[in-house]
Amino acid sequence: MHAADGAAVPSLMSAIWGALDMPASSLNRLRIEGSGALPSAFAVTELAASAIGAASLAVSELAGLFGPAPAVTVDRRLASLWFGWSIRPLGWKLPPVWDAIAGDYRAADGWIRLHTNAPRHRAAALSVLGCKEERDAVASAVATWPADALEQAVVGAGGCAAAMRTMQEWANHTQGRAVAAEPLIGFTRTAAAPLAWRPSLGRPLGRPLGRPLDGLKVLDLTRVLAGPVATRFLAGCGADVLRIDPPGWDEPSVVPVVTLGKRCARLDLHAAADRDTFEHLLGQADVLVHGYRPGALDALGYGEARRRAIRPALIDVALDAYGWSGPWQARRGFDSLVQMSAGIAAAGMAWQRADRPVPLPVQALDHATGYLMAAAVVRGLIHAVQGNGAMTARLSLARTALLLGQPLAEASPAAFLPDTDADYAPGEEATSWGPAKRLLAPAVFDGAALRWDRGASQLGSAAPSWGNSPGSPVAEIHERPDTGQ
Question: Tell me: the pLDDT tens digits for 51-62?
């Protein structure tokens, strides 16, 4: 594996590849090109290139079971940009990312972050603080609380909050120790009937590799942000991704970013008719990707045993925020909260000599975990098509955070400039909100880039059924320019 200047590429890639239990020799097919980095106390660009590289190289490994395994090239700059917002609206705007009172607040003895984007989480925080829904009122109320006590109270009320801890405090914390003992990707294997799906890798004369995940049925039960990133990547490799949300759920600031290539439907899993539909869909799915908190699907009657009974050959990949063991395993959490808990925001604050928490420049835990989830899906496919049965994988944002290691000793080299027109694919993407530009794909297989056959769409805009009819054709705008590779 080589960088553009011939130097050995990042140890992070080797660590991820080892967690996937893939042959070390396959790393020679991966090339990470470019220089520069996102400005951060941590090696965020290295994480971005490695996570996208791992998912892409896993697809190459799958293709190699049926013919020549294609070489993979990852662009460091594009990988970093895809860890932010990949879409540029034309004539319309994305809604604000954060609720008006979400953010970091100074408590009586430190800092705490409140995550209040969901109405019920905002209501929980305000009920504990006993104040008006105004930022100044929230700040005044938070200042009277010790950070740990307020964190416990908000979480206990069903909300989302995280006190800022140092990396050492997290390492000594009961939950921090539990997460550190977990594998980066926890695989379990189950005997099952052979998977009927096989990759479609035809190469018409003079054309590059076909879409390797064509026809793969992926049922997507995920929300902001890691899970949707995983299924967006799978859609870019040709998978038929069907996202299911409950009635009334929305996440307007990120839906145009993450629904690229997917169809999005709604089902109420408390209603008998919708449950029948869901079970029919699950019975035909090859892959299930879900980000419900541990126990949530069980409470709906769809625990792992039930899912396996419906679809024995299912590749089942699950996400949790704070890990799969320890006292916080069922705690609600998001990227920004895990950064506070795990010491990342505190390390950034010290590194920058700032007077408040300094998070990563992008939601890198979400994005990296998403690509690791996609890689785990493909690892499961390799396991299945080799006749070894079904596979389950578990990942968490908190465990991914440990990949970052310690803060950099010096400033990030050659920080990237902001995105320019040259970073976007030619043409326009037709979305539910209007036309848009989309970043060039960050990975190329033997010269053929990831591509998507549907523009981003609103939640609930499609029927809850599998289908192969194309949506708004956008494949042509996602091809990287021909490099002659």
Answer: 999 999 999 999
